[in-house]
Amino acid sequence: MTFAFDLILCLMILGTAAIALFVRDALAAIAFFIAFGNLMGLAWLGLDAVNVALAEIAIGAGVTGVLLILARARLLALGDAATSTGSPLLLRLGALAACAGFVVLLAAAVLSIPPESGLDRVVAPLMPGLGIENRVTGVLLAFRAYDTLLESFVLLGALVAVWSLAPAGAWPGRPADPGMADAPMRRVAGTFGQLLLPVALVMAAYLVWAGSDLPGGAFQAGTVLAGGLLVAGMGGTIGLPSSDQPLLRAALVLGPVVFLAIGLAGVAAGGLLVYPAGLAKALIVTIEYTLFLSIGVTLALLVAGPPMPGASDPDPEGKG
Amino acid sequence: MSWIDLAVLALLGAGLAFYAAGSLGLLRFPDTASRLHALTKADNLGLGLVALAAAIYGGSLAVAAKIALVWLFAVIAAGTTSQLLARRARLDEARLDDADSAPDGGLR
């Protein structure tokens, strides 16, 4: 990428970030936040960090953007104007000082790393032992699998926290129907959902499979699956399941539990989360596919929100 | 500069011109329907031309096929969302008209 392109991209990132922070209207702030996330994804792409770019665009801009829009709608429904009000000067100066200090510390830390000491050099010689080629997947699922294992449980914990907000009497019901109320809109969204959900499934399965050797992986694929499920839900193509369905519960815990079981079984091969020689790729792919399913369903349900009273559903079977 | 580079540049330039026209329409047209009209027509064509430029620049059939898929889904998604936006705008207008004809000329 050329210098001019990098410069324009940096200016646009700073500009969208500034507008997202300073604009008063919450919807405008969210719109600029989503634009900011997409531009950040472009910047990561320019740094050849395709995995990070995918995650930033799918989770940072996509899922977070949807969550913010829904949070705003909920605030409006509760009677909050959802606009920012002026804060005291002292608070603003304090925030400025704290952020500036953090930026200086972060910059000092990043600049103190010699350019040639990247993690890549350490990881590259170890990759042949795993049988996969994507070094990010290698780090996430083999060399630092602990982090990813904990992350998968944190995501599950987040859903439990959201579910615990269910109003009295609504448990164990369905989340509010995400389907559009207006019949013509529902039909348009439904047609799109019917097309998108199978494509999202194929795309997500490909992203997991490609994640072994190319950019991709369980989190990116899970976001694609969640997106497909939500769009299909908005059009009424699928109904959201009630939160006590055994199949749903199984889908939610499958990934973390399989990951934990394989990690514990590694004790026999030499330690927690150690993969036996020769089996590493098969185990990593197994973990990634089960994690992808759990992450996708969990993210979709996080967006759908807690069970609501009287949330009826035209499709009693729900999704499996 | 080869003929291929020239073609890529020409397609990119034409695509960007359509994007610029669409953005201008979005900023200048008076109501939602005409803004959507400007945006969807110009952006679909703009995206098509830029995608074509990228496919030629990529230089392989596999890359071109992937870009074609990206283009296809972007067009379907854009068509769907603009339908939904237009319907929403119409519902809002109808609600506003009802409010205007009410005796108190009330707000929504």
TrEMBL record, chain A:
<feature type="domain" description="MrpA C-terminal/MbhD">
    <location>
        <begin position="11"/>
        <end position="75"/>
    </location>
</feature>
<keyword id="KW-1133">Transmembrane helix</keyword>
<feature type="transmembrane region" description="Helical">
    <location>
        <begin position="30"/>
        <end position="47"/>
    </location>
</feature>
<feature type="domain" description="Na+/H+ antiporter MnhB subunit-related protein">
    <location>
        <begin position="191"/>
        <end position="301"/>
    </location>
</feature>
<comment type="similarity">
    <text>Belongs to the CPA3 antiporters (TC 2.A.63) subunit B family.</text>
</comment>
<keyword id="KW-1003">Cell membrane</keyword>
<keyword id="KW-0614">Plasmid</keyword>
<feature type="transmembrane region" description="Helical">
    <location>
        <begin position="89"/>
        <end position="113"/>
    </location>
</feature>
<keyword id="KW-0472">Membrane</keyword>
<feature type="transmembrane region" description="Helical">
    <location>
        <begin position="282"/>
        <end position="304"/>
    </location>
</feature>
<feature type="transmembrane region" description="Helical">
    <location>
        <begin position="53"/>
        <end position="77"/>
    </location>
</feature>
<feature type="transmembrane region" description="Helical">
    <location>
        <begin position="153"/>
        <end position="171"/>
    </location>
</feature>
<feature type="transmembrane region" description="Helical">
    <location>
        <begin position="218"/>
        <end position="240"/>
    </location>
</feature>
<keyword id="KW-0812">Transmembrane</keyword>
<dbReference type="InterPro" id="IPR025383">
    <property type="entry name" value="MrpA_C/MbhD"/>
</dbReference>
<dbReference type="InterPro" id="IPR050622">
    <property type="entry name" value="CPA3_antiporter_subunitB"/>
</dbReference>
<dbReference type="InterPro" id="IPR007182">
    <property type="entry name" value="MnhB"/>
</dbReference>
<feature type="transmembrane region" description="Helical">
    <location>
        <begin position="192"/>
        <end position="212"/>
    </location>
</feature>
<feature type="transmembrane region" description="Helical">
    <location>
        <begin position="252"/>
        <end position="276"/>
    </location>
</feature>
<dbReference type="Pfam" id="PF04039">
    <property type="entry name" value="MnhB"/>
</dbReference>
<protein>
    <submittedName>
        <fullName>DUF4040 domain-containing protein</fullName>
    </submittedName>
</protein>
<feature type="transmembrane region" description="Helical">
    <location>
        <begin position="6"/>
        <end position="23"/>
    </location>
</feature>
From TrEMBL, chain B:
<keyword id="KW-0812">Transmembrane</keyword>
<keyword id="KW-0472">Membrane</keyword>
<protein>
    <submittedName>
        <fullName>Monovalent cation/H(+) antiporter subunit G</fullName>
    </submittedName>
</protein>
<dbReference type="InterPro" id="IPR005133">
    <property type="entry name" value="PhaG_MnhG_YufB"/>
</dbReference>
<keyword id="KW-0614">Plasmid</keyword>
<dbReference type="Pfam" id="PF03334">
    <property type="entry name" value="PhaG_MnhG_YufB"/>
</dbReference>
<feature type="transmembrane region" description="Helical">
    <location>
        <begin position="49"/>
        <end position="78"/>
    </location>
</feature>
<keyword id="KW-1133">Transmembrane helix</keyword>
